Amino acid sequence: MLTALAATLAFHACSGSQTQPTPPPSPVPDPPKIACPVPTPVQSTLGAPISVVYGTPTTVNGAQPVTVACVPPSGSTFAVGATPVTCTATDARQRTDSCTFSVTVTVPPKVRATSYLAFGDSMTAGEVVSEGDGRIRILRVDAAKSYPAELQRDLTSVYTSQAQSISVHNQGKPLESAVDGVSRLQGLIATGNYEALTLMEGAIDLGDRDSRTAQKALDAVRTMVRNTKGKGVRVFLATLPPENPNGCCPDRGLAASLVEPYNSGLRNIASQEDVDLVDVFQAFNGDVTTLVDFDGLHPTPAGYTKIAETFFKSIKQALEQPSSSSLATSFRFVPFRAPARRR
Question: Which of 135, 264, 266, 319 is most buried as measured by Cβ atoms within 10 A of its Cβ?
Fold first, then answer.
């Protein structure tokens, strides 16, 4: 009896100490997947190879740790043009995935004309009425705030590789009428080595408040345009900014109503003579308070900046050679040639 009981207890004891079942193995992670960055073009100011730091590729999945290596690595020196970069992700099981993108290095844009003549009256010279004594009318020309000075700063800041050769020669002459300006401009074009002319003329003529004087001014401007383009110089003809008839002390905005008809004549000249129109009047968008000084006629420094911006946009559209990913960016300036007249 005791022997049978001992055997039964021994059986149950052995049954309770059986080995637990082995848990199933962990699932194997999916192979790694890599996504390359999307870099933006990088500009080489001097057109030489430059160091480029690009973004880090992203990875998902894979047995940890997952390592990423790119060739050429970020921070390497890249030449002008598009250079392929291949990035590879490798996980702990030596499984890999790759992606490829390009690092593009460009050269700066260039402009086809670097020598400019800015011609006109006191608005070109850079008269800032609020810097003088308005009551006794002390003439105050601030050349550093004139639109030609602003235009040169705009051109050199964008066309950096040509900055040393870009010049905007300010030939604004206060109180000069368009009729009187014809011969002066002709002499400057004949003796100077200019590639482009920025012309804004006629405000003095409108001061007579006589439509006949305005027409004489338009005829003079047409002569200026023809003489200039006949010398192979590109012409950028500007409309006049608006005037403020409520200007005061002195009040020089009395020809405000004649400005738009006169500008219509300038637009016709630009179209008929096939030259570039720079619509300063439109750019001012009717602002005769912040962009026009207290005399109602001359621009404020902000107004001169607006004029320069408007000229710059026209020059950029007409003469810019866009940024390139090729070193073959040299070119020769092609002078303006008037279209042949139909007989």
Answer: 266
